Amino acid sequence: MDEKVISAAKEQDSVIIIWSIDTLDWSQKEKADIQKNVLDNVRNGDIILMHSDDDKTETAKAVPTIIKELKLRGFEIVDAATLLNTDPYK
After folding, report:
1. Structural domain boundaries in the chain
2. The pLDDT of residue 90 is above 70
3. How far apart are CA 89 and CA 51, in angstroms?
């Protein structure tokens, strides 16, 4: 992202959204590492980046445990539009 991208987004009245937690599922591909990267660092309002490529089977396996643990900790899981109070695909 650079000033050109930011200017283009502003011209189109768009919002740029970026993640605050990278699961690193592209480099640390084991389920336990993906879970640890989220659960050790999560804070209220975080946006968690996960990939869904065909080779991300460990990411898919990590998701149920992440969701369960986040809920146990009192987090509510919402989509980006709800979190940021914005209209998606505007």
Report:
1. 18-84
2. no
3. 20
